[in-house]
Amino acid sequence: ASAHARQDEAIAAFQRSIELKRKVLSVQPANDSVAVELADSLSWVGTNYQNRGRLADAGDYYRQEFEALSHARIADPSAALWRYREALALSHIAGLAVLTGDFVTARSHYQDAHAILANLVEKQADSRTWQHSLAVANIEQGGLHLLMRESDLATPLLTEAISSLEHLLKQDATVTDWQLHLALAHRYLAMALAQHGQTGVARREAVAAVAMVEQLQAKLGANPVNRGALAQSLIALGEVEQVSGAGDAAARAWQHAADVLADLVADSSDPRILEPWVHVLISLHRDDQAAPFIHRLKSLGYRQPINPPLLYQPGRSSSK
């Protein structure tokens, strides 16, 4: 069966289990563990729809996830697990809002999620799950600040996330998620520093991000998720090179990124693949090739600005 067909089967199975959990809750409204499982299942379906470009459907499931948590008749609403699940639900809604260009919703939901997670980590500093989630919240907020050209607000959040993830990886160097998020934090920090004109340090950060994802690939194989991450890191490196005036090095990084993605894009509707593909084609002045993919993204409801943010700084001429 194709990957899509297998995913359809998995989604159908999750939807059946969602129905069952709703039935259980209608009879036992105070069954906390079923309420959490319901939220997890709704979140799983939402994430899968989001990665297939079905953004409106994803939003629907994320809202149900949030509602499932807020309507549950829980014994202790201040319990850490509930607060934690609520923070995750808020960040799911925020992440989708970023993709659909609703930065106002994204900002308020990220701030709420961040506040909950910071409070949990403060109360129980030894939970690695919460430390990781707080680091991710810092990265996500940092990424939103970058899109809104607020690099001065992004830098401290990203720096904090990096030191937290490095601390976690010292305890266990094998967790893929932590490594991918660390690479993402370095990539965003490269962009923030470049927006500030600190191109030397920015380049070091971008090179670090590329190296980290390449190491992961060597270990895990080149699955679409880390290929998307590698392409994004190479795009960031290219932008930093471009701002530094190294046009040839920029073009090489972008061409490498295009090669990484080329055989994934034909029938993809995953924004994690399509967005960097469009971005890199525009950077390489291949706008005519980018056009159908821009159309595909827009038809999915994707509204995040695609134009490479560093290339359009006033007063900088872009060199071909």
Please render the helix and strand layout as text.
Blueprint: H1 3-27, H2 32-51, H3 55-71, H4 80-99, H5 103-123, H6 128-147, H7 151-171, H8 176-195, H9 199-220, H10 224-243, H11 247-261, H12 271-283, H13 287-299
Helix pairs in contact: 1-2, 2-3, 2-4, 3-4, 4-5, 4-6, 5-6, 6-7, 6-8, 7-8, 8-9, 8-10, 9-10, 10-11, 10-12, 11-12, 12-13
Features:
mainly alpha; 320 residues; 13 helices; single chain
Task: Characterize the structure shown.
- By secondary structure, the protein is mainly α.
- It contains 13 helices and no strands.
- The longest helix has 25 residues, at 3-27.
- It is globular.
β-strand amount: under 5%
Structural class: mainly alpha
Count the helices. How many? 13
Choose one word for the global shape.
Answer: globular
Q: How widely separated are the two ends? A: 44 Å
Mean pLDDT: 91
- Strand/helix succession: HHHHHHHHHHHHH
How much helical structure, as a percent, in the residues? Answer: over 70%
> Which runs of at least 5 residues are low in confidence (pLDDT < 50)?
308-320
